[in-house]
Each structure stands twice: as C-alpha cells, then as structure tokens.
Amino acid sequence: MKPAMPALLSPIVAGCWRLDQWGWTPQERLRWIEQCVELGVTSFDHADIYGGYTVEALFGEALALAPQLRNRLQLVSKCGIQLVSPQRPQHRVKAYDSSRAHIVASVEHSLKTLRTDHLDLLLLHRPDPLLDADEVAEAFEHLRAAGKVKRFGVSNYSPEQFELLASRTSLVTNQVECSLLHLVPLHDGSFDQMQRLRLSPMIWSPLAGGRIFSGNGETEQRVRSALEAVAREHGCSAATVAHAWLLRLPCRPHPIVGSRRIEAMREAVAALSLRLDAPTWHALWSASTGHPVP
NADP-dependent oxidoreductase domain: from which residue to which, for each copy (predicted)? Predict the structure, then answer.
C-alpha cells in the first residue's frame, strides 16, 4: 500500500494550540519552528480560534523573521467554530458556522495572520448539524481554484459525517483524539474508514494532554507502568513508546505534539524508529482497558 498523503504532512506534526501561553518573543518562536524543522517536523497545526484568535498571528510574526522557511513548511488550519471573544465582538454565543461565507472569511484571515499566500490543509474543526455539504463543497472548490488552500479535511468527524462530506468533495484526513487513554477511534470505525480509503488520520492529544504521565487514576497508573516496562526494554522514554503505539496502527496516523519542550518533539520523532510487535501493542491496549483482548 502506498503512503496515503505523500509530501503533504510530516510523520509527526507540531501543534500550536498553546503557543500564546508560552510567553516567547518572536525570535524564540522562530527558534522553536526551526528546531522542529531540524527534526523533520515540518507540519504545523493551527486553528483560527487558538489563543482566542491570536496564535496564528504569533506564528506569522515569527515566520516573518525568516520568510524563506515557509517553503519547507506545511501549514494546517481549522475553522468552523465561533468563539465569544474580544477579537470577535460580533459573536453573541459560541456556535458552529460551516457556511461558505464563514469558511472563506476564516481562510482569508488565517492567510493574513500567518503571513502566507496559501494553506496546505484546511479542516472543518467540528461537526455542524447545520452543515450543508453542497455549500461546503462550493467553498472548498472556490478556495482550491483560487490557490488559497491545497487540500481539505475534517476534524472530530464520525465515519458517517466524514462519508457525507466526502460524497461532495475530496477530503484527505480526519483529525481525531486518540491515545492509550482514549481508544474510541479504534472501535467506532474511524480508523477502519481511513485505512479503507487509504487516508491517514491526524491524532490530537496523543499523550492524553499529559494525563498518561501526570494522572493518578487507576487507568493512568496502569498504563504508565506498562509503558515504562516497555521503555526499559527498548532503552527509550515512555513517551516514545506511547507514540510508537499509535504509529503502529496500519492507517498510518500523524500524531500532533503540542509542546514548548523540543525534547517532547524528539521523543515523538524517536517513535518513528520503534515498531512495537503485536503482543506488546495488545498488552498496552489491555493496560488501558483493564482486561485482556476478548
């Protein structure tokens, strides 16, 4: 089977959700971007709403210090959620908006703040019960024809929701939550669908927002112990094993690592060289569920 998205995304993706919380200067942000690229992490995941509509501008400000770097990056953004924010005083309530006008306006704003002329990938951020698949397809085709977005996908969609929109327009990925503390996409058909279509999902919160290593619940402790045992066997970090567990999936997922610590990125990249055997993979699954496979 050939790779699903050749040259579209790096195997590990850098997440920018909390970039506004890191307190960095533009130069420090640029250095983080450069260090990611040095590790082979060239894809950066954004959303218009991150940081209350501020993160893309912070990233764009840093990128403007080295504009030649843009040619080596893949910029991903998401839209479709309206937040109540000082940055958007016209928003009265938190809501979804998958209208053509909103999608196009969101992309125009992302391009301006990221200081780029195109997005490599645009995702609809959440399923919208009011989504009109034909209208979304028209918006996507307009943006594609204008050269403003290369490819399109969705985020947090069920297989049925993905299938509906994919019946109207070409989609290349579904960004979903998955980790050893969140197994839902393994069993609800999401990853089966991706493999059937030869598409690679993106995975957010691959370490469960850090709870795998900081949580005190019974499941967290059980998973952590199992990861540490495998890590000792392979001479690597437990985080590397947790990423390797995801990368073992045949749908070829792209974990998103959102950390200011470049060491966290190194641990994720190291997982690309660690292929867990099936017994080890299932042992970790069992540590998560609390019981052996059926």
Answer: 11-283
